[in-house]
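Ticket 4471: requesting a sanity check on a complex prediction with beta-D-glucopyranose. Repro inputs:
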Amino acid sequence: MNLDKEKPSRFFILITVVAALSGILFGFDTGVISGAILFIKDEFQLSALTNGLVVSAVLFGALLGAIISGRLVDQLGRKKLLIADASIFIIGTCASALASSVALLTIARVSVGIAIGIASYVAPLYISEIAPTKYRGALVSLNQLAITIGILLSYLVDYSFASHGGWRWMFAAGMIPALGLLLGMFFLPESPRWVCVKGQFDQATKILKRIHGETKGQVELKEIQKTLHQEKGSWKILFDSFTRSSVVIGVGLAIIQQVTGINTIIYYAPTIFNLAGFVGPTNAILATAGVGVVFVISTIVALPLIDTLGRRPLLLIGLAGMTISLALLSFAFSTTHASEFLKWIALASMLIYIACFGFSLGPIMWLMIAEIYPLKVRGLGCSLATAANWGSNMIVALTFLSLIEWFGVSHTFLIYSFLSIISMLFIFLLVPETKEISLEQIEENLRSGLRYRKLGQTKNILVTE
Ligand code: BGC
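Returned structure tokens:
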């Protein structure tokens, strides 16, 4: 790649493909349990409590992984941590497939969760730090596409092994992307931005030239060097006044992505379809597959739009669609008699909801938390936002069925619809537009006193790509 022809180089696409394997692992390892649990339940005679434990072990592990890795990602570097993470995926996957008791299975699933928690933000962070500004949105968002493909693959794998109850094989299939990630990462460079923080400028020059070409590589290096400040990355700096707005935006977006209800659909789609009147497993599974396909398509549609239309319009349009479809779902469940009508309204609103999430909050949350922190505390900041994401994910997953019991299906979806409206306000008032702005410019804005929406300003431009 060179300055005149700004197209991502083939080498660069390879980087993204390997890093996106971590997205596949994220999606596959969260999705696979939905089919496997049906057989595990019988084999280990699970009670309601142990069933819940096995299913939520991954969420708990992911929360743990996000918290414990924040310092490591800034100390070890993005590449080494991703290599270690791929190894945890492999060990956890083997242990899950071979587990001989509920306790061992739970521990194994917590380990896989830890690996997911780390991968969920380190991969987008790594891609955002090696991507040219112009394509950063699309390239990082490939990770979300990989998550949705991973979820679809897990349904497919569950389906293929279901006839002979092969839950161990369902888990074991996760070894393929894990091995791919481990091998692939050995051939990839460290993030040039992290290498600069460590003062290894010769190595950074080599990596930048490999990615961007001779001239552009030099320009990039200079821009990164300009934003290297003396302070050491620490929690104190993260909560310092100049980074506080990044923390509010990051954690806010991470919570919003979950409390607007995405995983009630992802984890419980068949249950909701049964409630809506699609009786029998085949109908519910078919409807769920429809949800998966729409999800993948809408994420693909988002890829070119994120860097052209921008993050804010997509977030606001997406959330508006999610608010309306949740209200529609609530309406559908509020009528008791018209069950045929209810069925189709429920299906249509879930498809609209998924499509809207797929081109907005899905990819853009992971993208923006990798963009808005200053380099020295980027790992810590991302890890905090990611922990908030997995924490809220757990709360929503654990409370969804109880909410239905207490308030009924209709009111439950109305609550998520209301939370979507509040989320729109948060984004409208506080979240900046970061398309076409270099990571260095965002950091410079923070240091010059700009906050929240103003972080997206392009005055005092450092890098123009
Ligand atoms: C969310 C997950 C969700 C997944 C669905 C991700 O961006 O963080 O909670 O299950 O999208 O594809």
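Notes from triage: Residues 378-407 form the longest helix (30 residues). Leaving this open until the requester confirms.
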